[in-house]
Queue: 4 jobs
Job 1
Amino acid sequence: MSTARRRITPAERRARLVRRHLLTPSLRAKTPEEVADALVALHATDPATVYLSFAARCAEPEVAALERALYQERTLARIRCMRRTVFVLPHGLAPVAYAATARPLAAKQRAQTARQLHAACSWDERRYAAVEAATLAALAQRGAAGAAELAADVPELREQIVTFPGKPWGHRPCPSGYGGESRQRLSAPVLGVLAAEGRIRRARPLGSWTSAQFRWAPADPLPHLPAGDAKTELARRYVATFGPVTVEDLKWWTGWNLTDTRRALAATGAEQVALDEGTGHLLPEDVDDRGPATDVEPAAALLPGLDPTAMGWRHRDWYLDPEHKKALFDRSGNIGPTVWWEGRIIGAWAQRRDGRLAWEPLAARLDRTARAAVEAEIARLTAFLGPTRVTPCYRTPLERRLAG
């Protein structure tokens, strides 16, 4: 009996990507929930990424629909999970992602914060617990509040400490990044731990949908799931959406160590396939599914910086020419806005100060069909943005140049 593994070509992988990531008009979603479910999770370090990832994959995208799912119906949850990064994901998947990736980190964050507060402010455990209790009570009274409002209610939150003492480098351009020595109100670490533990949640931000100044609100407790079961389920969801994947892909996407990655992948029952990068893995029901390789309509897409498709794999050469990485990524490995055609990155786009969208192809040759499809997506995204101006949280060389 033959033991040869099924080979999956880069072209077939790109066809699977187009279909499963909703990057073709006939498969566009109707709701934000459908988009989040299809992609497992939407990268949310940059608040605008969530909306632009949704708009690229929805037949008739509306900001109000996503805001309703996030802040009113709460069918989508915004939590810090994979790679210690904030994602928006289906409400039902939030406990899985938390147990699989974030719960141990939350415990470490609490211990680290307690040590920091003791060293800087002489807070013992009783004082720390009292401030947390007062903060939660104030938040319950207000319903939703920003850090400054809570600091007005709880005086201890207005105290300041020095962070990263002696570090010479400056701040990164994104509020979630770390920088050099600075002074910080105690509201930041206290609220950060409560959020990491799932005791409070990010509510509607101050300002527009591009704002990162989130209010806070009380959160419903997440059900406690066994870590092993949660890791298996998260790995299964990832392989179903992004497969075929390598062990390195799953390890990078989740932030797990190699042992946990291999154990979770094995528990999914995934089967081995042959890829250009080496051994890949697919769920058993997908191994013999050859439909995606032969039944994909030509499709263009404009994806934002940090989009979950562009950031979905550790190995990217099958959809991104290595020669283009320098133009499309910043120094920390964050990808900027990209233009896609038939499952491959072919260029970049940016919004100029006057609101117009500009793009530049990186591919050597693009036929009229591809260019027309990209222009159609430019028009579609322009209509979605309206008067809104979006500057990526992480700027990349080509995006900066196109923005002017």
Job 2
Amino acid sequence: MSLQYALLNDTSWQSQADWQTPDTPFMSFAFWQALADTGAIGEQAGWLPIFVLVHRVADSQSGSSIDHADHSENHSENHSAINEAAQTVAHPVAVLPIFLKGHHRGEFVFDHSWAEAYARYGVDYYPRLVTSVPYTPITGQRLWLAKGETLTTDIIKAAIAGVDDIAQQVGASSWHGLFITPELATIATASMPTDIDVAHLLAAQDNGLESTAIDMPILERQGCQFLWQNKDLLQDCQPFADFEAFLATLKAKKRKTIRAERRKVAEQGISCQRKCGDAITDEDWKAFYHCYVMTYAVRGQQPYLTIDFFMALAATMSEHLMLAQALDASGEIIASSLFLYDDRHSENATLYGRYWGALGEYDSLHFELCYYQGIEFAIEQGLKYFDPGTQGEHKLVRGFIPTTTHSIHRIYDPRFVPAIANFCAQDREHMAQYRQQAFEALPFNADNMPAFDTNQ
């Protein structure tokens, strides 16, 4: 059987198969439904969703290994044809979400310089296509897979063929797959030309040698985030017994600094507590959102997400929610930090620090509520990792290990491919050097320093 794709503008495909449980809560249907229902994604938000549905057909049904449903910029005119394609799919395999965007907000992988280069040459960089979890810089799978399926080169090629089809029909400059898994990055770059092939082609041309044109390449970028690991190297890599056991792995000066930061919070008359799932009340949510909005208000911005979004999460996926609260001496909530977390029995069970806010400035409270409360919770729950969010060397000195993130990109105007391919290659080299330098600054004592992995 061969693979074809259909392009859909709704989620009717969800009922067409039994789908695997995604690797993070952020790819759950409940999370995406909350985004859609509260206007965080959609035309008004500038995140217009299109879904590439990869499915199997008998070879006798088609002379081509890849086919597609009609799709154009006017989604309403094609609504009936697109839904008809979804209804006739017999063997769904995978779905790749695509967003049609005219901006860069909520992505956390920055390509503004590419847009500026296009503008200098009088070329429009918009619209552009993006595959990501909106507003969420968390590494994870970016395709929903039907039960019994595994990610393969053929699936990736079929999905990207669908992306290319969308790009041609809407006139997109590019496609950006953000915070993808290393597995997806490896498959994509192994099965298609890359910036390395572009460089070889240009070198051959510069030397007057014969060269063969290459197909449109996949360009990989890498970034660096910081990940805490629940692994005591002195105890055969077993999980930490408690927070003090974690502190014991750090150099004395770093242990002293962390203890001092936690004391400063207490000395301000502030206490902290954690609530999970259904124990988080409506009043807690209101207090959290008040704090969350303040994070944006101090920068003169509006938040991306509404209180209704968080209430939807509470109603549909409470088992994945933990709320850390800071209370002043009178018992009033003055800061909140919302975390999501995996089932503790999942392969790479992780705690995710996502949303934070405070009603004022309090010494060391951000570190306490966003990092130390998270570490304590991960230890208590037996979670393997704690991902506190994007950026920040201040995470490094608190025991969060530099870890590579991956994104892949496709540029549809061949005039810009050589320069952007060179940018990606240099950017990867720079990030590799940065990650090694960051690794050398880790606060662990000699017996607990993890080995540097160039592929991590």
Job 3
Amino acid sequence: MPETPNPLKPLLTPPVWELLNSLPEYDDATSAQLNNALRKDGWTPETVAAVLTQSRLRRAAQRKFGDFAARMLFTAEGLQQSTRLPVAARHAQRFRRAGITRVADLGCGLGGDAMAMASAGLQVVAVEADETTAAAATINLRPFPEAQVVHGTAEDFAAEQGFGGDGPALSSDGTAEPHPGWGLWLDPARRDERSRIWDPEQFSPPLSFVTALAESGVPMGVKLGPGIPHSMIPPGCEAEWVSIDGDLVEVVLWFNALARRDEHQNLIRRTATVLHSEEPAPAETDSSGHEGTTDPLRVTVSELSSSTDFGAGAQVDPAGPSGLSGTLYEPDPAVIRAGLVAELCESLGGTMLDEHIAYFTVPTGAPVTPLARRYRVLEVMDFQVKTLKRWAQESQISSLEIKKRGVDVVPEALRKQLLPKKNKGPKRHAVVVITRLAQQRLCAVVEPLD
């Protein structure tokens, strides 16, 4: 079977690297024209394809890497799984706070987390099994003398270094000292050449390898897809779901010294971390008691956590349809996946509507929280297409945002049913929330407050 060509190989010569860095920002509208111009200048088809592909990936990477993207190398798969820099900075901060000085990044991908760790002053060994991706990481980490890239598997590196082997070394008083000063970071590959992998035992490395490493006592963080079922999360770790600007991006399992404890020294089991990259106002404590802070990469950080296990947290009696009034709260996706909706509801003095629906209301007032979006409930009706269509016509609605939870509705299809193809009257926008409460399908007309 012939070897798959390395798509980065044409870029790894000084003339082509200089060419790539001299190109203007990628533009779909002018890419064909640029292709022809480069070919006329004598560049080979292979080289032109490589630099244009890389230019396109650099433009896409700006969302995750900002200005750093202009001097980095990417693969499409690696970019998709890579960590956004503000999120990676949070990972590095946790290692620093735990007193860790050296990190083995096992499965470093394009090197996003290793960049953040090296920037934080940590010594990093970045291990990557895929040769092409390791080459990209080597280029991306060149500005960081604290980082070294190793081409190899996480399993081989761990075995060679004695992580998770016959157990940690013991100090003179008999306490465990698993590689003092070291921490591990793992971001298992969750895609193959065809599609996303859902079975954790098919990850590279598999989840069982991760849990075996954790048993050695070494401080460790493991990034996984945020949709992993709660039942697959190992005991004895803190699971932190992270969102940025409303996008749920990851869950990190923190083990041993990297797992935090509450004021009673109980292990924090579940955390929702919500990041907002907008320019923040001076840090204040919001009305729910959750303090906002500003980190060096200009994101505001808000957290909600619990030491209780999944399904064993706050118990709030649902009000059902009668509770759909006042201010409706839509929790951030990180809060929902961490199973902390009831905790947030309780902290705001709210009322759960249904134990299976991640909305809640506050009957009077509208306390502000960065952990949820707020909507004022204006009108509630039974959800029937005819009823909703009549309301849209009488209210002269010309554009409609449809939010839904717990009902089998396709917003795009429903919108076409409700709105006229040509609106001759005034332009009026509305927002509706369609949900199921106690087996009753309801539609609430709401006004966004955030």
Job 4
Amino acid sequence: MATFPPYPTHPSEPPGPGGPVGGMRRPAPWWRKKWVRYGALITLLALSGLVILALVREQTGTEGFLVGLGLAVLPVPLLVATFRWLDRVEPGPWRNLVFSFAWGACAAALIAIIANSFATRWIATATADPSSADTLGATVIAPVVEEIAKAAAVLLIFLFRRRDFTGIVDGVVIAGITATGFAFTENILYLGTAFGTDQFSGDSGLASVTAATFFVRVIMSPFAHPLFTVFTGIGFGIAALSADRHHVRRVLLPLSGLLLAMGMHALWNGSSTFGEFGFFAVYAVFMVPAFGLLTWLVLWTRQRELRTVRDELPAYTAAGWLTPPEPYALGNMKARRLAREYAGHQFGREAARSVAEYEAYATSLAFLRHRGRRGRANADFVVRERELLFELWRRREIARPSLAYAAQTTAPMPGYGSGYGNGYGYGYAYGYGSPYEHSSGGGYEYGHEHGQGCGHGYEYASAHGYGPTAPYPSYSPYQT
């Protein structure tokens, strides 16, 4: 039974990723060209960065700014590495992470500092009570303004980089990196101001305001801002899993996540008004459990993604696009790492990068098929599948033996021999030679077994199926 219309038959030599399209395309207007959009975005972020730099330096002074900068940068590598580690199953492009961090550190911080200052002054003037205005600004205005400003980055990537935004983990990573950038700029301001206070009062050492601020913001709660904004990212992530026809759900889920982020942020900012131990109570009762719950959710989602890879890719093995050990190896983080290390050790750094790209494209392919089977595929499903298969086919020479070595090393029941077995899973016998031979029926079937070669028995020769003369598979993964 075919789940989808049959996949188009490919020629013997693979075409470009999108394939030829009939007819002439009209050139896009200049304002829709990629370099114009990138240039406008970079200019906006650069101007925002210069303005926020001037504002923070004006409030802290040059010396305070430098001290704040030196202390605020300390948690950034840890936070970025943590979110990047969470994104290892289907790593998004670096440009999205750079944009997210820059938006949080520059644009979102600028919006927040201007809006918060304006709102607090307006409330103080209207109520003639500056103390209440500061409290209201910190517990109500700041959470709303800051979370909306940070959510804008998640929204932009969700709308304009939709292919890179496929689920909960993507939402968590984008939101977390954005909030990390925002917290970086905010920490410069707070730590620089604390240093100025110490310079005025003469305090130093552990008893200084700078030390106390550093302990609270950098040691105790470096994940505070990322924790708030991650709720927004989860809302967008669940919306990304919904079909395009579910318009109401795709709007309400991100809004619900944004409201939760605002609520957590308001609770955290208002903890100082709950009494002498209010901060520690909120930290222990709300922040730590929320952090633990979200950590569990993200790790569970990552394991679920790996299971999706193992479940969906065997269809492409049956169609001749992948070899039998690949679904298991691509669905196991240890095997993926071993494959990259093997390729790098045997063939160099460029080969390791090629295997990493192969793993990323195969994961995207598995997620695409999973959405398609659940009726959540977008209109460009066939085009996107074609592009991903083409990218896999280009990198198969290095990736296949590397993944096979990793599968053989990590499989729980290593029962490997020569030749291809029927089906897919662990312990299947396989060898490396001509993986596809033309059959009399007009298709391609698994061919001869080979175990000769250097190293672990893998050769890169066209006679063994990994050269440019290997035919392009013509089976559809959705035909049985």
